Structure to design on (535 residues):
């Protein structure tokens, strides 16, 4: 095995996920920069990673998944909630549901309210466009020359069409591009798919540049902490096959280990809340109370219907002949259910007409099971996921021990804020009305869950508390901004130390209105320009 300890690089990036792969690409564009990308997982060789529907296979595969759990909490029925995270080159973008949603203009305007620091919508739109190669939409909101392929669905199934039509019949607008001028309305989702294959951060940003002489990629190394000389980051300490290794950075260490692991590494390194550092006797390098706080995600409710419509994955999987046919369709034409991401169509709607922008996200999934990642129901079914776009419940995390391989203690605090409880109940009622409208009404045989007996607000709230699911969008644990609760400034530099940045989902001050992969890739694009002094 190559001896890789005590080596120097200009930049060391920790974590080859959605953000890390973009950074590795952009920082190594200049031949004079030597760049190291370190990943705890292995290469993305599992063929199911690259088949869109294959994402369901990685939920319980520890070879590519950190398999964390959050702590049991009263507001969610005392359940330990499963928290999958990619542990593989490409990170969570290698195991996610492939939906491409950027969020709303106002999300970013809130990140930078006075448009002073380059993170307001007008300033970041060019970075969304820079990475993007949109196959189907060509206008001022989209890019055509980037590495990340984004495409519209090749197959529009009858249930998807009926769902969108019902939304329109209920008075909501048709939206042909959720990432364009406005997010509001009903329509079909674009996916990070290129000719029937997943476009992950790995395949998009790393694959073609792997051989650059100034870029090294080390896999299967668990980084345990950042090394400091006084208050300057000089490198990292890691474990490879039980052996301790040290890697040194001449210029910067960049943490892109995601919303759970980045704050964990910071706390282990002596950057974090005083009580946490003191509890474990960790030398205080920079006391930052915000490390691990401000944790946000999209908690959701799931409505499941039995249907007579046979264009569902449940129906396909129950027939050997149809499964075989789907396999052939995919191999020959890259079409069919294997070319499908998690959800296919969605509505971004306002719970009240008086609102300025949508606050609810309901999306259609062409299969059903009791929980995400579990067996499909033995009948034809579909699911509707109902989410609040900007929940108010906020959680936190902290290390449990000094052992870098132990997961942090994660308190998600899902569904704890009274506004979230009220609004999600309302959202279920609104969604039921949409499902009662033509033409989707004719496809609904029976509401399997919550079920027709769950009617009152109290019953719905109880159902949501005990059966609600999550969206796998944890963000915010190293908040960007100015103030005591912030961990990084607007150039992603960690407060109180030198030569250390955080660039990943953890820096989002507020969760974006929708899925989080696209905004994380945008963050990395912008951060790369900041690091290289281009802005
Ligand atoms: C099951 C699932 C479904 C999702 N569906 C969607 C979707 O459909 N659309 C969407 O937009 N978003 C989706 N998301 C969310 C989205 O993928 C994430 O928000 C995004 O990938 C986060 O990017 P990141 O760079 O912050 O972290 P990650 O992509 O998770 O990258 C972090 C990387 O750091 C590595 N790492 C961590 N700790 C260490 C360490 N100590 N040493 C070395 N390496 C380390 C990890 O192994 C990982 O590769 C989904 C996520 C999941 C898990």
């Amino acid at each position: 095995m190559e001896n890789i300890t005590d080596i120097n690089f200009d930049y060391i990036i920790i974590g080859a996920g959605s953000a890390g792969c973009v950074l590795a690409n952009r920082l190594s564009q200049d031949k004079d920069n030597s760049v190291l990308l370190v990943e705890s997982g292995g290469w993305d060789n599992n063929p199911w990673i690259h088949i869109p529907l294959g994402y369901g296979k990685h939920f319980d595969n520890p070879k590519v998944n950190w398999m964390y759990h959050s702590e049991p909490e009263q507001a969610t029925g005392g359940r330990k909630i499963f928290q999958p995270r990619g542990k593989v080159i490409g990170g969570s973008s290698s195991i996610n549901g492939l939906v491409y949603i950027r969020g709303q203009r106002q999300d970013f305007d809130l990140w930078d309210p006075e448009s002073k620091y380059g993170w307001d919508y007008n300033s970041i739109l060019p970075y969304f466009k820079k990475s993007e190669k949109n196959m189907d939409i060509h206008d001022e909101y989209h890019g055509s020359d980037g590495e990340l392929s984004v495409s519209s669905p090749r197959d529009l199934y009858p249930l998807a069409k009926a769902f969108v039509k019902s939304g329109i019949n209920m008075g909501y607008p048709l939206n042909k591009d959720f990432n364009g001028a406005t997010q509001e309305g009903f329509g079909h989702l674009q996916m990070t798919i290129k000719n029937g294959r997943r476009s992950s951060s790995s395949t998009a940003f790393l694959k073609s540049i792997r051989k650059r002489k100034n870029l090294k990629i080390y896999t299967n190394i668990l980084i345990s902490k950042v090394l400091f000389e006084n208050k300057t980051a000089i490198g990292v300490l890691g474990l490879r096959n039980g052996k301790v290794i040290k890697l040194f950075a001449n210029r910067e260490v960049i943490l892109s280990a995601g919303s759970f692991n980045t704050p964990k590494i910071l706390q282990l390194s002596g950057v974090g809340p005083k009580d946490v550092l003191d509890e474990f006797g960790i030398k205080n390098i920079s006391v930052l109370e915000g490390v691990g706080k401000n944790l946000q995600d999209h908690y959701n409710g799931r409505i499941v219907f039995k249907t007579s419509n046979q264009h569902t994955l449940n129906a396909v999987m129950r027939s050997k002949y149809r499964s075989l046919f789907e396999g052939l369709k995919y191999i020959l034409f890259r079409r069919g259910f294997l070319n499908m991401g998690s959800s296919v169509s969605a509505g971004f709607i306002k719970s009240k007409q008086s609102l300025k922008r949508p606050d609810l996200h309901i999306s259609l999934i062409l299969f059903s099971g009791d929980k995400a990642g579990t067996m499909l129901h033995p009948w034809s079914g579909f699911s509707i996921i109902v989410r609040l776009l900007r929940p108010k419940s906020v959680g936190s995390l902290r290390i449990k021990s000094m052992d870098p391989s132990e997961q942090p203690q994660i308190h998600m605090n899902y569904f704890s804020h009274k506004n979230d409880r009220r609004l999600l109940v309302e959202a279920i009622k609104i969604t039921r009305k949409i499902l009662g409208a033509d033409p989707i009404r004719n496809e609904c045989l029976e509401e399997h869950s919550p079920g027709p007996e769950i009617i009152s607000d109290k019953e719905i709230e109880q159902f949501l508390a005990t059966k609600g699911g999550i969206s796998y969008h944890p963000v915010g644990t190293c908040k960007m901004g100015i103030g005591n609760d912030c961990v990084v400034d607007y150039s992603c530099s960690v407060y109180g130390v030198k030569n250390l940045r955080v660039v990943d989902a953890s820096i989002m001050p507020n969760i974006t209105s929708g899925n989080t992969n696209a905004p994380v890739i945008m963050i990395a694009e912008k951060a790369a320009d900041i690091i290289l002094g281009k802005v």
